[in-house]
Amino acid sequence: MSAPADLFWRRPYALLLLSPLAWAGNLLIGRAYGDTLPPFSLAFWRWIVATACVVPFIWRDLGAHARTMLRHWPIIAACGATGFAGYPVLNYIALQTTPAASAAMLNSALPLMVPLLAWAVAGETPSLRTILGIALSFVGVGVIVSRGEWSVLASFGVGRGELIMLAAVALFALYCTLLRYRPKELPDLVFLTATMLAAALLLLPLLAWEMHAGRVYPLQPYAIVSLLFIGIFASLIANIFWSHCVATLGATLTGASFHLMAVYAALLAALLLGEPIRGFHLIGIALILAGFALATFAQAAVASPVRRRESPAAAVGSGLPLARE
């Protein structure tokens, strides 16, 4: 490995910019082609593409850990159902009626939802500062969901797409919480591949139902390119980069970069889809980021000044996913 490449990989600050960009691209595709790309088919085939790309490199490891994967199939299936099957499907359904910018900004509430799910599922009580940060963040969510008009919330007139997107984010937060129970003896790529395969198997009956209903994935150039981008970049490469950043740069810094997805999605949607960026978007994302800073940065301040190498699983404790989108 050359010196520049070695430096790029050992201190991968540039990679912090790339993973959120790939995930923003996934949202943009879901918004642009929501009427023509069936959600169950897109979610199913993205994991097939991602799995086909990674299996040739780790097939020996898969065989070596086959018994461990079978022994821990309940947690693998649960992670596949929540984070890799349910989350993307609900995303694609919501994007049929929700602007990409709003969808991305609602996704920014994810790191603040994880402590709530950790409290509900694992009984972990969040600190007062974390609770205040979550409350502030969800004020921002309310601004975006109501589109700046609180009377919309009072009258329960919130758009169906925004509610589905919030349900998707909550489902992925549950996935992040379940990751703390993942088998430690499975290497990261083996666990990721097993989870992708579990999601594909769970989506298979829904894919069959969708095809029976007459919605077949189109074999058109735009659809194939979209699938390859989502399967290779948003589903696989971005997740590998993300996990590497968590391991080398730490969970706090990597988590802060996650919110770039909202910035990327808003700018790309404005440029490519003609979606306007409105004042309530800016106010909402500012409140979400402020809540994230309040809940997270205090933890970084009391951490040891000597950086330790964090595993991708350590990100779970900070509200960050091992694999995203």
Indicate the topology.
Elements: H1 3-10, H2 15-32, H3 39-64, H4 66-71, H5 73-94, H6 100-107, H7 110-122, H8 128-145, H9 150-154, H10 160-178, H11 188-212, H12 221-249, H13 251-258, H14 260-273, H15 279-301, H16 314-317
Helix pairs in contact: 2-12, 2-14, 3-5, 3-11, 3-12, 5-10, 5-11, 6-10, 6-14, 6-15, 7-10, 8-15, 12-13
Any overview of this molecule?
The chain has 325 residues and is mainly alpha-helical. It has one domain. It has 16 helices and no strands. Helix 5 runs antiparallel to helix 10 (160-178), helix 6 (100-107) packs parallel to helix 15 (279-301) and helix 8 runs antiparallel to helix 15. The protein starts with a helix and ends in an 8-residue tail after the last helix. The relative contact order is 0.21. Mean pLDDT is 80; it is low at 298-320.
Roughly what is the average pLDDT, rounded to an integer?
80
User: How many structural domains in the coordinates?
Assistant: 1
**Total number of strands:** 0
Shape: globular
Q: Distance between the terminal alpha carbons, to the nearest Å?
A: 30 Å
Task: Give the low-confidence spans.
Answer: 298-320
Helical segment tally? 16
Helix content: over 70%
Strand portion, in percent? under 5%
Described by strand count, sense and barrel closure, the largest sheet is:
none
* Class of secondary structure makeup: mainly alpha
Rg value = 19 Å
Strand/helix succession: HHHHHHHHHHHHHHHH
